[in-house]
Amino acid sequence: MASKLEQFEPFAVTQGSTYGDAGRINDRMNMKRTIFAAAAVLAFGVPTWAQEDDSLAGPELGQPGHYEAMKEAEWDWHPGDLIFRNGVNDLDELIRHAEAGRWATVGMLRSSSGGPRVVYVDQSDGVTEVMLYEFVDGLSDRDYEVYRIESLDPNVPGEQMEQGSTPRFALFIAYGAAYDSLMLLGNDGYYNAELPYVAALNFGVILGVPTPLEKLVTKSQMLRDALLLNWEAHPFCVVAASQEECWNEIKEISVVTPGQIISSDAVTRIFPN
Question: Scanning 47, 69, 132, 162, which has the fewest C-beta atoms within 10 Å of its C-beta?
């Protein structure tokens, strides 16, 4: 029987495609962790890290948060649904301002025994997750939107425990990776919109066309300043003698944004409808 992780062999991307020269996505995988996690999945049905911190379990009956978890969602949620909101990461907000977008941060829903959870990239914790009700805590229906990648949705209403391809990528490949403040596709970390973009790309779906940094910063000097804050440590600027020389090296890097994902033909708005 083939390993469950073999399904994550990256979708073939040719030279000059949207993903460019960023490299193979599975370079991110730490082999020891992958083998150990795969063994745990085959034996117990959940990854080892989820057993250790009980992240697959929701609030227990009678404990704080139980009734909020039982409510689950304001829409008929499916694993893989993309939920957009603001106020999570500083760099996400700078991107939103630069592209004049509505939303800054995007998370991805997955199923668990305790109800839906949201996998997203946090600037302190990297790729992590929280319960859905925690992710939208304090938000009104106008403070977030939900989109679905229809071509990758394996579910029919009422069968949300089928995990789906993109949530499995987020859990078994990306989970625990560091936050990527350099915003480079294909390195060891992830930034905000990169996580769902790369997850979908692994299964042949392109969520729009990434935008060159040079185009984004025409509307936001603050974004340019943030990207150059530690310019001397940037891998593209090892021979640069100044911030300006570094900027000339990185300005053509293309980045994935929430607005790009929403405007792609691959997603459909589910909530509010």
Answer: 162
Domain residues of the chain, as ranges? Answer: 4-54+75-209+260-271, 211-255
Percent with pLDDT over 70 in the chain: 71
Pairing of strands 267-271, 145-149: antiparallel
- CA dist 199 and 205 (Å) reads 9
**In this predicted model, what pLDDT tens digit does every residue of 161-190 receive, in sequence order?**
567 889 999 999 999 999 999 999 889 999
Whole-angstrom distance, CA of residue 5 vs CA of residue 34? 8
Residue 19 bridge partners (DSSP): none
d(CA 189, CA 194): 9
Task: Output the six-digit token pair for 47.
Answer: 């990854």
| CA gyration radius, the chain | 19
Tens of pLDDT, residue by residue over 208-225, are: 999 999 999 987 889 999
Answer whether CATH 3.90.1720.10 is correct for domain 4-54+75-209+260-271.
yes
